[in-house]
Amino acid sequence: MRGGRKALLKVIILGDSGVGKTSLMNQYVNNKFSTQYKATIGADFLTKEVLVEERSVTMQIWDTAGQERFQSLGVAFYRGADCCALVYDVNNVKSFENLDSWRDEFLLQANPRDPENFPFVVIGNKVDVEESKRQVTQKRAMAWCQQKGNIPYFETSAKEGINVEQAFFTIAKNSLKQEADVELYSDFPDPIKIDGDTSVAKSAGCEC
Amino acid sequence: MIAERSGRDRASGGGGDGAGAQHAGHPDLEPIQYTFEPARVELAHWAHQMQVARAEMAHQPINDPDDPLLGTFDLLSHADVDAASPGARGAAIEPIRIARPVDHARDVVWDRTVEADTSIGKFEILSTDFAPPPREIVRGEPVSLETWRSWFHEGPRLPDETEEQACTRIGRLRVHPSVVREAIFRGGLENAVRPHAWRFLFGIFPWSSSVAERNQIRADRQARYMALKRAWKSQLQNLHDSASLGEHIVKDDLADNIMRIEKDVVRTDRGHPFFASSTVRQITQTDLQRPQSPTQAPLAGSSAARGAPAARTSLPNSGGASLPASPRSSTASTAPFGSQFRLTGHLEQLRDILVTYSTSPENDGLGFVQGMADLAAPILVVMKGNEADTYWCFVWMMERLKDNFRKDGSGMRRNLETMETMMRVLDPGLHVHLKVIDALNLFCCFRWFLVLFKREFEFDDVLRIWELWASDRYTTDLQHFIAMAILDEHRDAIVRHLLTFDEVLKYINDLSMNMRLDRILVRAEQLYLRFEGIARSRGCISDRDVEPFEKTLVERLDSLEL
Ligand SMILES: Nc1nc2c(ncn2[C@@H]2O[C@H](COP(=O)(O)OP(=O)(O)OP(=O)(O)O)[C@@H](O)[C@H]2O)c(=O)[nH]1
Ligand SMILES: [Mg+2]
């Protein structure tokens, strides 16, 4: 990857305590689910190499504690994020209602260059649980996503490994896009596009 | 921000040597932004392992207590730690007096970081500290039941008595509490002694109490615990009644706390045998449609038990026969209003303790905060399921730690700032390095302080750390020295290889369950003594000070003008 573009994608997973953030991350990175995960204290991250659009990139996935008490700490971790995954538990309506404040908090703290277009992904987790327990319909969740600027929406089960890969793939793809856009801005204040993205990528590489 | 990051990284070629070198001698420069590189974390781990292996190979033969070289070694070299470990040196308990004259003429300028050669360049560090020469630290054996009893009147066991029985009728302490504290600090406690000793260490019994006084204290505390627990249970009953009358329940703190507590209780120490027989059953829709009184037994035949061991036991009990049975309701399982889970056994007890705490006057309006379950569970294990005693030990512990749980983060911030100041005094090189790579906020130590190393060591090691911490030998802030000891153990790997905040955090998080406590405890004591030596040489400690220090460590540190 030397000489190429930066290949580290920073992804932040946010959502209420117990919605399954740690479980999702571990299912994605290690293909494992354990009922023994502990409540997250502070923050940690895992990395995974992925191939997106023929580029090998490193995803750095940040898992933070869900209890709002720890948010004063969050600040340092949100900075420089390329994508943010908002997770709720489909069987817990409160965790869904809190997505708004998680999103606002993130935008406030991470302070991304272009908040309107910052890539979010929404994940409704624990769909393996019996249907009768479900409190948030797919329709309702999708309406929210649409209203917030067409955020991609996934329903997953970290336990059964349903849809997890797909959700994170979209996260990777959208982060990469974000990363590319930002570099375009920063390295070349007045970019003159000749023939699209590729030439920009090439010239960026030459700089090294 | 992102642009900065990637741009700089490209300029430095990802290596760091070029970019860092120009800053030599300018520790006050702004942090440099590098990009996280997982390989550097791997490299740092590898380097540390090599360093340990090398030290062990090189110094294996050093087991002669009279080796003249020992005294002149770098205080924190591996040789010193290894030589001082019980295995190498025997386990003589040598009490350490801290009031020792400081002989400046003899003292060495002990500072390996006068010039800090780090991966981001060389830094000149001015240090005029005179530190006492390294002293040999000897760890001791854990205190046995016999030793424990020998410290009390009427301690010896009668012929027809069990050890447990003998321990519960012991009279007044015959020795000075400092003898007990020192012994506990030196070697910790054997498992069998813990339930007895922790009741003293964690503030239930005064050291001076007689057996009659202790019985009285215990009865009082038990009654108070029961009253507190009854209060929230009946509050729940009321909520439940209103709910079943169809009244709209407005947001309720109690129900909210219970929900959050249960979420964590079911994720706490589930792998420990003590909790193995406790069960968790998610409350199903069926249960909710047929509301039941919180004191009623669960519905027979309700389905959907999930992720829980199959067997349901009633009352896994409190092991030690002589300990009063824990106060708990006779029903096998209760699910308070608002519960998501039906818990049994020790998990149910853990929940009740935490709910009681969240509603108690001692709680100070904190409610339940994540991390509390990690602090309460080990105490419940040591107390063999005695709820009331666990509760009061926990309350004592929280009195010391609760600032860390404040919503505004003030307590934790102070903790981390204290660490930073300590580091500036004890290891300026590491301090500069972390500053330059923008990791001086020390978030990497956050979890250590919040749950007192619960997540970093195996269960038994955690108990050991806690009893040393509660022994108050030297200081009531032992956690800071343990934290410094861990950082110190890994400082070379950190300074030589890690270039970003992320890498430090990852490296430190990776250490969890992978550290040797014996080495760290020796180091922590050495660091304490060194710190005290420095503080003394700067006039921050006078010989009139009593130990453990009455003034807080933070105040003392703040008075160290650098
Ligand atoms: N049935 C089911 N349970 C899940 C799923 N994902 C997580 N869980 C369970 O939900 C609980 C919480 O999961 P975690 O991954 O620890 O939740 P978290 O969001 O990381 O929580 P915090 O660390 O407290 O913020 C655990 O008991 C998991 O076993 C899922 O997809 N299905
Ligand atoms: Mg988590």
From TrEMBL, chain A:
Keywords: GTP-binding, Lipoprotein, Nucleotide-binding, Prenylation
PROSITE patterns in the record: RAB (PS51419), RAS (PS51421), RHO (PS51420)
Entry-linked Pfam families: Ras
Annotated family: Belongs to the small GTPase superfamily. Rab family.
Official protein name in the record: Ras-related protein Rab-7
Gene: RAB7
UniProtKB/TrEMBL annotation, chain B:
Keywords: GTPase activation
Biased segments, Polar residues type: 276-296
Pfam families reported in the protein's UniProt record: RabGAP-TBC
Compositional bias annotation for Basic and acidic residues: 1-11
Gene3D superfamilies: putative rabgap domain of human tbc1 domain family member 14 like domains, Ypt/Rab-GAP domain of gyp1p, domain 3
Region Disordered, residue ranges: 1-28, 276-337
Domain of life of the source: Eukaryota
Stretches assigned to the Rab-GAP TBC domain: 188-473
Skewed-composition ranges (Low complexity): 297-312, 321-336
SUPFAM superfamilies: Ypt/Rab-GAP domain of gyp1p
Name of the featured protein: GTPase activating protein
